[in-house]
Amino acid sequence: MCSKTRGSSALTDKFDVAVVGAGPAGLTAAIRLRQLGRSVLVLHRVRPRPSRVEALTPGVADILRYLRADGVLADAGATLVHRHRVAWATHDAVTREPKAGEASLLVQRHRFDKELAEAALAHGVLFRPSSRMIAIESSGEQQLIRYAHDGFERVVLAKHVLEATGRPRAAKRKQLGPSLIAISASFEVVAGIECEMLVEALDDGWVWAARQPGQALHVTAFGDPGQVHLRWPGDPQRALSAMLASSAYLGQLGDAGVFEGGLRCGLVRLRGLASRRPLEVGR
């Protein structure tokens, strides 16, 4: 069942559940629904992720173990965080070594998503990548999902729709705080943070940094976009170097060259409803 956007193609599918979004939330839900015997379709847009380190909370390992998909972490090369360092402006610096079962996990996010998608496929989840959502409408006891794929507008019927994009459609959202600018880069360093996670206040913002064994050091600095554009207009690398210069742990990176992937710079807006505060990154 479809209408013409660039051509015509007959396509009518029915599923118990349609999951919109193929991030960790959508994929873990899809795996569990398949284990419960439901037919599941995942609709998602393919957006290449840069090769960068991200941190997962300790509970992720428990969730994957419950889903009998705990091999995903090993296949994705996840490593435990051996040490947390927090150096905030209003407190003395704190270094903590987490107990067993309480450690965060560092992963290359693109590898983690790939392995989780492979686990979902192995459970019989069907994927329709490169899909752009148009509308979700009620049709009796079914939900009618209209989306664009390969130049066609297509339709899927599902008993239930699970939106797992982090961007709710139905309700208005409000900004919950001031916007920040995020500047990310990776550095090749011989010494420094390894199997650690650092959060530190800077003179012009704050920084998050982490590194896996044998990998580049990933750094993301956050600051006020107005000040960054005023002081370092059109020069994110200079802005990042200047921000890191006030770091007690990363100050030496101010003169280091960006190692891989170049710089990524964009606005971060905290938006949500009364009980939800999803993080949106707009570039």
Report the helical percentage: 10-25%
- Strand segment count: 19
Choose one word for the global shape: globular
Average pLDDT, all residues: 79
* Name of the CATH first level of the largest domain: Alpha Beta
Structural class by sheet pairing and helices: alpha+beta
Regions with pLDDT < 50 over 5+ consecutive residues? 1-11, 270-283
Number of helices: 6
Order of helices and strands: EEHEEHHEEEEHEEEEEEEEEHHEE
CATH architecture of the largest domain: 3-Layer(bba) Sandwich
Number of domains: 2
Give me the CATH fold name of the largest domain: FAD/NAD(P)-binding domain
CATH superfamily of the largest domain: FAD/NAD(P)-binding domain
Largest sheet properties: 9 strands, mixed
Amino-to-carboxy terminus distance: 34 Å
Q: Rg from C-alpha positions?
A: 21 Å
Strand content: 35-45%
Structure description:
The chain has 283 residues and is α+β, with helices and mostly antiparallel strands. The protein has two domains: 2-81 and 106-163, FAD/NAD(P)-binding domain; 174-282, D-Amino Acid Oxidase, Chain A, domain 2, CATH 3.30.9.100. The chain is 19% helix and 40% strand. It is built from six helices and 19 strands. It has helices at 24-35, 59-66, 71-75, 109-122, 225-231, 236-244; strands spanning 2-3, 12-20, 40-43, 53-56, 79-80, 83-87, 94-96, 105-108, 126-128, 132-139, 142-149, 152-163, 174-175, 180-187, 196-202, 205-211, 217-223, 260-272, 279-282. Strands 6, 7, 13, 14, 15, 16, 17, 18 and 19 form a nine-stranded mixed β-sheet that branches. Strands 1, 2, 3, 9, 10, 11 and 12 form a seven-stranded mixed β-sheet that branches. Helix 1 links the parallel strand 2 and strand 3. Helix 1 (24-35) runs parallel beside helix 4. The longest helix has 14 residues, at 109-122. The radius of gyration is 21 Å and the shape is globular.
